[in-house]
């Protein structure tokens, strides 16, 4: 196949940041995707509908002239989020979900939830008005091995949550293990996003010839058997699995340091990365549904009607793209890809 034409996809998990960083990265997403679920972990986080409205306006103002893009907003759940905040979110029409970060789990999660049971009144309201809960599914207990934190979260927090709120619609974000795949398959009302890095790389990439900070994200890359399980899920055609890049830009200097930030930057070349992953298991024909159908169906939004085209062209991922302060290193910098989006 030399050309791949798909219904325009959406990104169901994206970090856009703010200010000059937002302006630097947004064009990459807009070039490929019609909509994206925008993560709320700004500093300070997006906690209210008013915060989300203001952030949405800043995103809309940063869209390159003549292009179209719809930011789908989320609220950042804290110990103090109230059922009234949920009703306001539902009434807003542009807030599409609520994001749960365990306090201390990842970038800008200090104000996240300290104990998931503290939010039961909020989950009750979300179940009632049918707003999806998006989970960063990792425990933060320092005693739990980093590579086991997703599995333990599922056992200790997600399974009980599902029992308490059987109708609450949940997206387990950026899944990284076969345990997560199994749990999603076994539970109606639970879906999952899958990132390009977790489909293309295993944990060896973190240590190839030395420590590789640009492969460090959370949840961290896992063993090859888990990557295989994720590839199988993504290419299965099951509507529970859909595209969410978790593209998370950090300056080069904040990653290449003694205590580097978590996050891989994939918005630049997301669709080419996913095409590469799907082609590796001879499943390119499954890419359109994963990228363009399953997400809008879960979020009860219309599918896009226009298209994008990728061509079979070998190109090298740049070492760096412009970004405030010290530049931004894309996922897989320097490596070759064989699919390419039409140029700007
Ligand atoms: O690697 C990550 N980066 N994981 C997250 O959960 C947050 C994200 C970020 O905001 O940088
Ligand atoms: Zn994320």
UniProtKB/TrEMBL annotation:
Subunit structure: Homodimer.
GO-annotated cellular components: cytosol
Residues of the signal peptide: none
BP-aspect Gene Ontology terms: 'de novo' pyrimidine nucleobase biosynthetic process; 'de novo' UMP biosynthetic process
Modified residues (N6-carboxylysine): 99
Domain Amidohydrolase-related: 11-308
UniProtKB keywords: Hydrolase, Metal-binding, Pyrimidine biosynthesis, Zinc
Pathway(s) the chain acts in: Pyrimidine metabolism; UMP biosynthesis via de novo pathway; (S)-dihydroorotate from bicarbonate: step 3/3
Residue positions binding substrate: 15-17, 41, 136, 218, 250, 262
Known catalytic reactions: (S)-dihydroorotate + H2O = N-carbamoyl-L-aspartate + H(+)
Binding site for Zn(2+) 1: 13, 15, 99, 246
Cofactor(s) this protein requires: Zn(2+)
One Pfam short name: Amidohydro_1
GO function terms (MF aspect): dihydroorotase activity; zinc ion binding
EC numbers, comma separated: 3.5.2.3
Cofactor note: Binds 2 Zn(2+) ions per subunit.
Role played: Catalyzes the reversible cyclization of carbamoyl aspartate to dihydroorotate.
Residues that hold Zn(2+) 2 according to the record: 99, 136, 174
Catalytic-site annotation from UniProt: 246
Listed name of the protein: Dihydroorotase
Assigned protein family: Belongs to the metallo-dependent hydrolases superfamily. DHOase family. Class II DHOase subfamily.
